[in-house]
Structures are given as structure tokens and as C-alpha cells.
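40S ribosomal protein S25 (Dendrobium nobile), 132 aa
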Amino acid sequence: MAPKKEKAAPPASKPAKSGGGKQKKKKWSKGKQKEKVNNAVLFDQASYDKMLTEVPKYKMITPSVLSDRLRINGSLARRAIKDLMARGSIRMVSAHSAQQIYTRATTATRSNVHQNSSDKCYQISQPTPPIA
């Protein structure tokens, strides 16, 4: 049997250069630009009705959440939250200098539940004084 011939290495796609010759320059990427949002600065009737009906059902309410979902700007979102607080539709959870967090107002609060449960309890009457 004849000995096998060794295959020659395939030619490299780029020959190695020793000096700092002309190289392919890196192209600058065109960075991603954020799309400009066009949020409303005043309520129209449709968005105002949506604010009154849907927002009190949200679990977490912040100005940024309202701005994102209702397409209103931040100052209008803060005003809407103040309006809903005055109506009693939402309640404050946490307030910070930079962020306020609200949630839906529950109909039964702890004091109401406690009062309702005590109404059903039997009351113990005062013992009658003994007759002498």
C-alpha cells in the first residue's frame, strides 16, 4: 500500500502582516434613538372618562404609570392623582420626595371590619345587684 500524502494547509483568508499597514476602519454604529412620545397636556373627554373608570382599578398607581397608559404628560398625571385622591377613589401607599405610590381604595377598611364583627358578638350585661 502506498503511503498517504499529507495535505497542504489551506491558504489563510488574510495574510499576516508584520507592519501597521492600511487596515479596514471600524464603522461607527448609528446608535439607537428613542422614539419621541407625544403625550397630551390636557384631558379630552374620552381620556378623562377612562381616567375616572379604569385608574381606580389599577393595583399600583404612580404618575409614570398614568403617563404611560393614558398618554398624558407627567404634570397632568400628578393632577389626575390629586383629583382621584379628593374623590376617595385611590389611597396613598408611600410618599417620597421623588416618587409617590398609590393604590386602589378598598371599600372595607380595618376599622369597618372590626366594627361589623363586633356587632354580631353577644354583649355581656352587667350583673344585677343582689336583693337585700
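The CA atoms of residues 1 and 41 lie 90 Å apart. The first strand starts at residue 90 and ends at 95. ok done for today
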